[in-house]
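Quick one:
INPUT:
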């Protein structure tokens, strides 16, 4: 009902319910009026944290607070060199902020490129606008693959079918007619139409869901949750140990107060793995930046990690292995059909669909003479049906109805036309059947009694880089499964041309068992699947996941949406439908399937390297806690000042960890991050603490008189450095020239500190005599041998 009609009844319309405008949409003046009233779709969809949130997340941490308090204390009671750890934390925090800010800029710029541009009708003309520019009452046009970005009411419907499964869980598409509601977050699977926006902004049904789904996030990650678990354990260990150390150094021992405070702080600070969270954030952020340079939009940060764990990637053929366009190579009339009439029918079918898919567009290009026939009924293509159709009134007034679709769906299994189709499919060609039918086109048995009229042969354009990408996955032990709605033989032929391992094992999905376990067995056994429905794609992903596989799904069409949503990692092409881009965690904006290896490699680099450096950091935490416990039990002075452990941490952990975290790493990520790290860190920390404390006790018996404590500290520092360097040397394997250079440089830096007089004074490190220093080296050598034996034993026992 129009505004004028409402006024004639003396009623005032609800300001929140704008009645549908004319078919031409709103005028420019009406749009401006609504913008002035604030009736705009102003949902702040962000792809990243704000700068304020980035600074807050990096600065206001629990461990920064602890270290900050200790730093302030040290500034008052000890020389500046004992406060160096505070400056290191400031530098680390700054690095984290800068890197995440760079990642934010990259993501924001890519998000603008990949943003959906809905089509609205204003002033009688259609135009693409930003999602945030839609106003209340706008007439929004819809086509296959388009996502409803606001709530509304249908005003035009041309066989419009909308999938609301992502919102309601209802699997079957819903046929929409004028007057029916449209919910934001749903998407079109067939047909087209237009709806009037009745709710925009935060009032739209899926506004909050869309905002959360599009936000750059560091959560829901095994790596992040594993580090949080580790930090929780560290806190539990640190608190009672630190209290015991404070009591021991300040109360039990009758030493100089300032020196006691300094050694107490020296025992507490290294318990905190302060750089671990930083390096994790930096590694992820740099991963985002690197992928951004390849036009890869990471909509959810853990997707980098998830793709590194993938062992099966499911590929949709069209748009992934092949380019979107097709070419008609031949039209073969059947049963004596007139070739000219066949081409006229094909042209009319193309003209009857305002939004043709790739196959129909190729037919339109090949048969452009499609105007003039009256369309009495039209059924748009649906992935579930595998055909489209239309009924016409021809030039001579005769009525006819036609279907265009998969031959093996439209014809019975014994039809002779299928033999001809099979030969073409074996060559990797796509074949559609034009069939004349009687009865209603939208009836469930519309294809019953169809008369084959012609075969339309289409050639698909293979992506030039698809073969190399498939070879990469095979080399990395990632199984590729091609899942397509096309004929299985045709898909298999395409896969064989690209060199897909196992491409000879093809299966028609209509023969897949319904039992999930049996289905998983068939999927693992075969590599190529044809005639797969959208629901089957979803079921196949679930079946593989039930076997413990980590599954990635790639696609660009509306028929891939459900599977993309359920897969562990969904990857969409930038040219894909709005719906696929909305649910995918990774969008390849350059539409290049060849970008996927870069994403996998980046994920493996992040996961593998963080596992390595986490072992370094936690080894330090373990030996620090154990040294503090031993000091309390033996009632002796803590052997180190903060400056000593700052030096050791920088040379054996901080600097090398930074380089190791950003190094190439092709190992597939393994599960159970916490267990994998702790099974190496705990024995390493125990061995380091035992060797260091042994040296310290021996030195206490060896040295006496003034300066004895400094000599004891220097000997203990030498042992701890050598053992820590051996841990670093193990973690740096397998060696490359730069890894060897890194370890050697760290060792050389320590020798410089021991050799240069002013550095000796600055760090209070001076080896006294020859007996004790060589004893310290001998103890470290024994510890290194024990470390080697322990790591190899753990490696053999836990090969996973």
């Amino acid at each position: 009902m129009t505004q004028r009609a409402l006024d004639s009844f003396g009623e005032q319309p609800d300001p929140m319910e704008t009645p549908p405008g004319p078919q031409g949409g709103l005028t420019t003046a009406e749009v401006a009026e609504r913008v002035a009233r604030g009736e705009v779709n102003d949902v702040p969809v962000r792809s990243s944290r704000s700068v304020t949130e980035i600074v807050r997340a990096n600065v206001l941490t629990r461990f920064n607070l602890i270290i900050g308090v200790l730093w302030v204390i040290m500034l008052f009671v000890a020389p500046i060199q004992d406060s160096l750890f505070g400056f290191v934390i400031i530098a680390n925090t700054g690095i984290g902020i800068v890197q995440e800010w760079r990642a934010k800029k990259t993501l924001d710029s890519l998000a603008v490129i990949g943003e959906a541009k809905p089509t609205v009708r204003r002033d009688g003309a259609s135009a693409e606008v930003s999602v945030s520019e839609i106003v209340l009452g706008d007439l929004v046009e819809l086509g296959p693959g388009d996502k409803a970005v606001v709530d509304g009411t249908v005003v035009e419907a041309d066989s419009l079918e909308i999938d609301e499964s992502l919102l309601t869980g209802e699997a079957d598409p819903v046929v929409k007619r004028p007057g029916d509601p449209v919910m934001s977050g749903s998407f079109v699977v067939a047909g087209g139409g237009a709806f009037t926006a009745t709710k925009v902004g935060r009032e739209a049904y899926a506004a909050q869901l869309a905002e959360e789904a599009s936000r750059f996030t560091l959560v829901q990650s095994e790596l992040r949750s594993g580090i949080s678990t580790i930090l929780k354990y560290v806190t539990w260990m640190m608190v009672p140990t630190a209290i015991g150390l404070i009591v021991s150094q300040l109360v039990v021992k009758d030493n100089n107060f300032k020196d006691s405070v300094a050694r107490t702080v020296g025992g507490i600070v290294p318990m905190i793995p302060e750089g671990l969270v930083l390096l994790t954030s930096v590694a992820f952020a740099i991963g985002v930046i690197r992928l951004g340079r390849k036009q890869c939009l990471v909509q959810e940060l853990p997707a980098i990690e998830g793709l590194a764990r993938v062992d099966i990637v499911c590929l949709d053929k069209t748009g992934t292995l092949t380019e979107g366009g097709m070419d008609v190579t031949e039209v073969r009339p059947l049963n004596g059909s007139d070739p000219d009439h066949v081409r006229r029918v094909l042209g009319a079918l193309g003209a009857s669909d305002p939004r043709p898919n790739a196959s129909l567009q190729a037919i339109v290009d090949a048969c452009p003479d499609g105007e003039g026939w009256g369309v009495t009924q039209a059924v748009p293509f649906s992935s579930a049906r595998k055909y489209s159709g239309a009924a016409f009134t021809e030039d001579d007034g005769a009525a006819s109805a036609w279907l265009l679709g998969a031959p093996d769906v439209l014809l019975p299994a014994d039809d002779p036309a299928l033999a001809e189709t099979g030969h073409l499919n074996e060559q990797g060609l796509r074949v559609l059947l034009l069939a004349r039918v009687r009865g209603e086109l939208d009836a469930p048995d519309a294809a019953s009694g169809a008369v084959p009229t012609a075969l339309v042969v289409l050639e698909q354009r293979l992506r030039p880089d698809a073969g190399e990408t498939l070879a990469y996955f095979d080399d990395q032990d990632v199984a590729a499964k091609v899942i397509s709605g096309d004929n299985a033989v045709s898909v298999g032929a395409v896969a064989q041309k690209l060199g897909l391992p196992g491409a000879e094992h093809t299966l028609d999905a209509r023969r897949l068992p319904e039992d999930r376990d049996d289905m998983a067995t068939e999927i693992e056994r075969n590599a190529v699947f044809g005639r797969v429905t959208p629901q089957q794609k979803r079921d196949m992903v679930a079946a593989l996941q039930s076997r413990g596989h980590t599954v990635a799904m790639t696609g660009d069409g509306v028929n891939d949406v459900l599977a993309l949503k359920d897969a562990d990692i969904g990857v969409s092409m930038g040219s894909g439908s709005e719906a696929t881009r909305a649910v995918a965690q990774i969008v390849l904006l350059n539409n290049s399937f060849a970008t996927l290896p870069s994403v996998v490699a980046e994920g493996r680099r992040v996961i593998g390297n963080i596992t390595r450096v986490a072992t370094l950091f936690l080894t330090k935490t373990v030996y620090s806690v154990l040294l503090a416990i031993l000091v309390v039990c033996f009632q002796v002075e803590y052997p180190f000042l903060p400056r000593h452990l700052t030096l050791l941490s920088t040379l054996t952990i901080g600097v090398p960890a930074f380089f190791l975290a950003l190094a190439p790493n092709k190992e597939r990520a393994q599960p159970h991050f916490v267990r994998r790290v702790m099974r190496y860190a705990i024995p390493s920390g125990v061995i380091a603490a035992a060797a260091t404390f042994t040296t310290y006790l021996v030195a206490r018996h060896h040295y006496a008189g003034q300066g004895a404590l400094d000599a004891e500290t220097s000997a203990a520092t030498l042992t701890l450095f050598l053992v820590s360097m051996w841990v670093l040397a193990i973690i740096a394997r397998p060696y490359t020239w730069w890894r060897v250079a890194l370890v050697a440089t760290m060792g050389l830096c320590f020798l410089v500190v021991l050799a240069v007089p002013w550095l000796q004074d600055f760090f209070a490190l001076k080896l006294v005599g020859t007996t004790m220093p060589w004893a310290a080296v001998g103890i470290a050598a024994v510890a290194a041998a024990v470390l080697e034996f322990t790591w190899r034993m753990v490696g053999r026992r836990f090969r996973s």
